[in-house]
Amino acid sequence: MSQCLQHWTFAVNASRQPASTLPPWLRSGLGRASEVSRVQQVIKQRQIHTICEEGRCPNRGECYARGTATFLLVGPTCTRSCAFCQVDKGHAPQPIDPAEPSRIAEAVETLGLQYVVLTAVARDDLPDQGAGQFATTMRAIAQRCPQTQIEVLTPDFWGGDPDRDRAEQAQVDRLAVVLAEQPVCFNHNLETVERLQGQVRRGARFDRSLRLLSLAKHLAPAIPTKSGLMLGLGETQAEIIETLQALRQVGCDRLTLGQYLQPSLAHLPVQRYWTPAEFEELGAIARELGFQMVRSGPLVRSSYHADSG
């Protein structure tokens, strides 16, 4: 799936794992059913998608109540097959819907959202890998809701050309299209440590993702950059710290750390449940390394409390 979604799939479905296998700090209910139902109705009527729903994020009721949501662009089908993600996968996704940006903007206005995150599945089949749809959607929201802040969580924008030089330039060009719309934050998730990238993020690479974050900082230094990791796939604390250091070396400003939950038996199993105390310790380490904003906890996801910086 898209590296961004990978991010994305911090939003996994804990309900598919037997409650007896989950530690007590992961057994909380969704709550805020009225808010969930209201948003579900609006997005269903407009035939749009949110990662909140596609990934069944455990925090979606809380986020909806805060006036935030994360919309999924360029359709619900990803051209990659990441082993942790429950978003639909396939090599023949539908064509881009030209009306999607306007419908999303209408939903933002109807719901009165103050902060929106735009993400997307990986679309390696598209010449611009979906960058144009990010830009068009941001413009549509800005026109209808000029006070709404927009964060983007993108794929790596890599692919489509076997020549490395041309592929690198294409990545720059696609990223520039998105950054030209001045999102309030640029997010791209590493998802896991370098040793586990091939196993977890099929079709993505650690160095390409770091390069994208570095490019974003170079092209638009005033826009904060952000990344996230899901823990519990077999990484060690030392590897996590090395990854955080690598993110800081490319100027990454913000960080999310959350617990991986297995969406189904067909996905990677959980190797370890990190405790709330361990998440607090890792959060403190991240702050010491210089991250300006850190969200670290078992139920934290890529867009968790994104509106609070």
TrEMBL record:
One of its GO terms (biological process) is protein lipoylation. Its cofactor is [4Fe-4S] cluster. Keywords: 4Fe-4S, Cytoplasm, Iron, Iron-sulfur, Metal-binding, S-adenosyl-L-methionine, Transferase. Its EC number is 2.8.1.8. SUPFAM superfamilies: Radical SAM enzymes (SSF102114). It catalyses: [[Fe-S] cluster scaffold protein carrying a second [4Fe-4S](2+) cluster] + N(6)-octanoyl-L-lysyl-[protein] + 2 oxidized [2Fe-2S]-[ferredoxin] + 2 S-adenosyl-L-methionine + 4 H(+) = [[Fe-S] cluster scaffold protein] + N(6)-[(R)-dihydrolipoyl]-L-lysyl-[protein] + 4 Fe(3+) + 2 hydrogen sulfide + 2 5'-deoxyadenosine + 2 L-methionine + 2 reduced [2Fe-2S]-[ferredoxin]. Residues 64-292 form the Radical SAM core domain. InterPro entries: Aldolase_TIM, Elp3/MiaA/NifB-like_rSAM, Lipoyl_synth, rSAM, rSAM_sf. GO terms for molecular function: 4 iron, 4 sulfur cluster binding; lipoate synthase activity; metal ion binding. [4Fe-4S] cluster 1 binds at residues 52, 57, 63, 303. [4Fe-4S] cluster 2 binds at residues 78, 82, 85. Pfam families: Radical_SAM. GO terms for cellular component: cytoplasm. PROSITE patterns: RADICAL_SAM. PANTHER family: LIPOYL SYNTHASE, LIPOYL SYNTHASE, MITOCHONDRIAL. HAMAP family: Lipoyl_synth. This is Lipoyl synthase. It comes from Synechococcus elongatus PCC 11801.
